[in-house]
Design brief:
The complex is a heterodimer.
Chain A: E1 3-12, E2 22-30, E3 34-38, H1 45-52, E4 60-65, E5 68-69, H2 75-81, E6 82-85, H3 98-109, H4 113-126, H5 142-155, E7 160-164, H6 172-189, E8 192-197, E9 208-213, E10 216-221, H7 223-227, H8 242-253, H9 263-276
Parallel strand pairs in A: 3-8, 3-9, 6-7, 7-8
Antiparallel strand pairs in A: 1-2, 1-4, 4-5, 9-10
Chain B: H1 10-13, H2 16-30, H3 36-53, H4 58-64, H5 68-81, E1 89-91, E2 94-96, H6 98-124, H7 127-138, H8 148-178, H9 188-193, H10 196-219, H11 238-259
Antiparallel strand pairs in B: 1-2
Helix pairs in contact in B: 2-6, 2-7, 2-11, 3-6, 3-11, 4-6, 5-6, 7-8, 8-10
The chains are: A alpha/beta, B mainly alpha.
Chain lengths: ~280, ~260
């Protein structure tokens, strides 16, 4: 697999902070994967995003994006490859209307207007928000605003999309729509997704999960490996996934196969138990 | 004045730059009117424009509300204090005369004309169109290194965040009310004081929104406004030229009626 982001021995300490926010962190992220970075508040996950996009400068260590180590001179090139969807939909909506907001990133690149019109329409189509083109942000729901934010990022054709707790302020419906949309786009557009969250349930679509604690990676593995940690996850300030809790409760009274069971496997086991009764 | 009212009519489709400048121009020529005929002409023009906008007349009356007391005060002042050689009624410092009545009627008309025309502008033009017009009008200042595009972006972002800050204020007020602050009670000083616990959190949250927004803008490649292209463009059409010609015609008739 091809590496798209390669982080080596990264350190960052906020001014006037005693402990480092990122502590000697190394991580490789591969092309077209959906990587979830989970951790409690203050574990360093948002700091990591800002470091990757060069919004803050690392104390030491290196970050390479698409094979190029980022520094002050090429940071704007690196940023073109990365799109970030932030947490609060209202705090990232720059334009007065949906189409204006989608065009913002393109305007920054100095794209000619005729091309912009096509790119904006295309991006809005991808997130299924074309009919809202002329609307102002006040008339949109949180999920719709995040879809516009995704369109704004897609319009500039990045290779990597970072979702920094982008669904934490949405209702369950909005969250589901946004996550499914992102997964669909990942497949279609050959994107790499890095999603940052404190809610382990939001990682179900990812292919790999990294658990961050005190600025260090404590676990790195496939979702089933991470979910299988069960109660150990609470040590890192995370909640045990519902399916894992259910399994351990079931194991107290009935015999289940060893190891982590996916939702479907668990359902099959439940049916089996039900028909044996 | 008023908030933008979505609609569809000739006035809505006029170029905002033209509307913006012509509104100011009209406010200027209102002061040239000096007799019944010239005021009647201007009133006819304003009513015609209101008719063309297809907006319910009630919205224009509403526009008068905030300045109602100012109008009343000015009109009464003119009515009672205009000096005259043949007063109808005289008592102490108060004088009521025919001249006073005419002058106060004119002043009243000026208020109506200016408020109606500027209400027409704000009802039919979105804030963002107004900010685009300002940018376009200020463009010549680029030569003296005035950061026109940056100022225009600042203006449009400020407009974009007004509703958000209003929401924020309501939230803070509710939170303070829940802690027992009463905003409607007490004397003037006490009322002003009770706004301090709103302003401080509002400042704090504005700064945090501004910080988030700056990070989001930078992540989307915003540098310093140089080398940006523009998605929203204003287009000047034939109807805008016709409006200007119409305005020139109005001015000529006005000047004629004035010396008549």
């Amino acid at each position: 697999m091809e590496k798209i982001i390669s982080i080596k021995n990264l350190n960052y300490t906020y001014p006037e902070a005693k402990t480092p926010a990122i502590n000697d962190l190394s991580l490789d992220i591969y092309k077209n994967e959906w990587l979830s970075i989970v951790g409690k508040n203050g574990s360093g996950k948002s700091t990591l995003t800002k470091l990757i996009d060069g919004l803050i400068e690392a104390s030491s260590g290196t970050i390479a994006v698409d094979g190029q180590e980022i520094n002050e001179d090429n940071i704007w090139d690196a940023r073109k490859k990365i799109g970030i969807i932030f947490q609060n939909p209202d705090h990232q909506f720059v334009g007065a209307t949906v189409e204006d907001d989608v065009a913002f990133g393109l305007e920054n690149q100095g794209m000619p207007r005729e091309q912009m019109i096509i790119a904006v329409d295309h991006a809005l189509e991808l997130v299924k928000m074309s009919e809202f083109k002329k609307r102002d942000p006040q008339s949109l729901s949180g999920g719709q605003k995040q879809r516009v934010a995704i369109a704004g990022v897609l319009a500039t054709r990045p290779q990597i999309i970072i979702m920094d707790e982008s669904t934490s302020m949405l209702d369950p419906d909005g969250r589901k729509t946004v996550l499914n949309l992102v997964e669909q786009l990942r497949e279609q557009q050959d994107l790499t997704i890095i999603s940052i969250t404190h809610d382990i349930e939001e990682t179900e679509l990812s292919q790999r999960i990294v658990v961050l604690n005190d600025g260090q990676i404590v676990k790195d593995g496939k979702p089933e490996e991470i979910y299988d940690l069960g109660p150990e996850l609470t040590n890192y300030g995370l909640e045990e996934p519902f399916s894992s809790k259910l399994m351990s409760t079931l194991r107290e009274s009935v015999k289940l196969p060893e190891g982590y069971l996916s939702g479907r496997e668990l359902k099959e086991q439940l049916w089996k138990l039900h028909s044996n009764m | 004045m008023g908030r933008y009212l979505p609609g569809d009519s000739l006035i809505y489709h006029l170029d905002p730059r033209g509307k913006f400048l012509l509104t100011f121009y009209f406010v200027g020529i209102v002061f040239f009117a000096n007799n019944v005929a010239s005021y009647a002409l201007l009133l006819a023009f304003v009513l015609f424009a209101v008719y063309l906008s297809k907006i319910n007349f009630g919205f224009f009356i509403k526009g008068l509300k905030p300045v109602f007391w100012l109008i009343l005060f000015t009109v009464i002042l003119q009515l009672l204090f205009t000096p005259s050689n043949n007063p109808i009624w005289h008592w102490g410092i108060f004088t009521l005369s025919k001249e006073g009545m005419v002058i106060s009627a004119y002043i009243f008309m000026r208020f109506i004309l200016i408020i109606f025309i500027s209400t027409l502008l704000t009802l039919t033009t979105t804030p963002i169109e107004i900010s685009d017009s300002i940018e376009s009008i200020l463009k010549p200042l680029k030569r003296i290194n005035f950061p026109v595009t940056q100022v225009a972006l600042m203006l449009s972002i400020a407009l974009r965040f007004v509703p958000l800050l209003v929401d924020e204020t309501t939230k803070i007020m509710d939170a303070q009310r829940a802690r027992g602050v009463d905003f409607g009670e007490g004397g003037l000083i006490k009322r002003i004081k009770s706004f301090v616990p709103i302003l401080i959190p509002l400042f704090v949250s504005s700064f945090s929104i501004a910080y988030d927004l700056a990070i989001a803008m930078e992540s989307r490649g915003y540098k310093d406004g140089e080398g940006r292209s523009k998605y929203r463009v204003l287009s000047w059409a034939r109807r805008d030229n016709l409006t200007i010609i119409f305005m020139i015609g109005l001015t000529i008739i006005l000047l004629f009626l004035r010396s008549y």
